[in-house]
Amino acid sequence: MTGSRVRHVYLVRHARAEARGLRWPDDRRRPLSPAGIAAFSALLRTPRVRRSGVTLVLTSGLSRATGTARLLARAVTPEADVRVCRAVEPGGDPAHVVRALRRHRATRIAIVGHEPDLSALAAFLTGHPVTHPFPKGAMCRMRLRCAEAGAARIMWMATPPTSGEAAR
To answer: What is the CATH number of the domain that holds 28?
Structure first.
């Protein structure tokens, strides 16, 4: 990050995907499930998510993450830019994600990725261990004064409704 601008970073775990198995031999191509899309879409309709003002979405290149990123971008800010970011791929280093953040001027950025990487990134940014993993489709808002270890504060975390609630 450049300067002393406060940034709002939204960590988002991809929504529920189709089951692993013979139908999806390449796990990277496994798409979101209809139930995952419905639950995440319900989360996207909540006021605090709709007001996020995300203008840039950095996502893992796995199909379930890019699908989640596209849903988020369309729902929150139609002109939001969605970019695949190698630093967000499974097994990535949180320091590499921070470097990717520094390359962008946007002040409201979403990062769509996977577990346990998002928990590791949250721990890196806050300087505190994360005691609960991110459920599928969950979104966490963090406030950063600078993109450095220990410089963030978690503002809120939202999880998608259960499948019965999403159908309502």
So the answer is: 3.40.50.1240
